[in-house]
Amino acid sequence: MAGLPGPVAARLRRGRHRPRHGLAARRDVSRPVGAPRPQAVKDLAPWLEATRSWWSPPSTITYTDWTDQKLHPLTQIQVATAANKIDAAEALSARWLTLLQERADAGEQPTDEEKAIVRGQTGFAAQLAKEAVEILHNAGGGSVIRRDVHLQRFHRDIQGFSLHALADADVNLELQGRVLVGLEPGTVFL
């Protein structure tokens, strides 16, 4: 433990130090290895859960006789579709988070094939989350662009996030597909 600050080294010797970054920081030692990690999913993809809880439809549909948007069948379909996209993204994220946690617990690196699959699934989960936010944003009507409406910020943030190369569905699905058909990944960034 040479080179570590005194308090950190002391906590390590007592088994009380928890890293502050990376997968090890989120490792819940009370759960069996390989058990689902729902908290890690929320840590890595907070837009998923927050989208579900921050959206509420306007009370009326402007220029119609609908006085409660929740009663309109289209709203119900939109909310159900967005909820299912969020659930699918969470399930997909839990799958690769479990794989990465298992590798970290074993002190191993994932294989290149596993890394490519994680990249593809990450991009796809990000795409699902973006689509869910877009559905709810569009269902919110014109009032959703007001600054005091949380969903407008979510929409803007996920639009920006989805432009990042490591979250881009097309780039990541191409990488995953190359590996699945037996080709080299075509990049060192796995």
Describe the model.
By secondary structure, the chain is mainly α. It has 8 helices and no strands. Helix 3 packs across helix 5. It starts with 5 loop residues before the first helix and ends in a 10-residue tail after the last helix. The N terminus is likely disordered.
Radius of gyration: 21 Å
Span between N and C termini?
31 Å
Q: Total number of β-strand segments?
A: 0
Element order: H for helix, E for strand? HHHHHHHH
Mean pLDDT: 74
CATH class of the largest domain: Mainly Alpha
Brief description of this entry?
The chain is an all-alpha fold and 190 residues long.
Topology at a glance:
Blueprint: H1 6-14, H2 22-25, H3 38-44, H4 46-54, H5 73-106, H6 112-139, H7 150-162, H8 169-180
Any descriptors?
single chain, 190 residues, mainly alpha, Butyryl-CoA Dehydrogenase, subunit A, domain 3, 2 domains, 0% strand, elongated, disordered N terminus
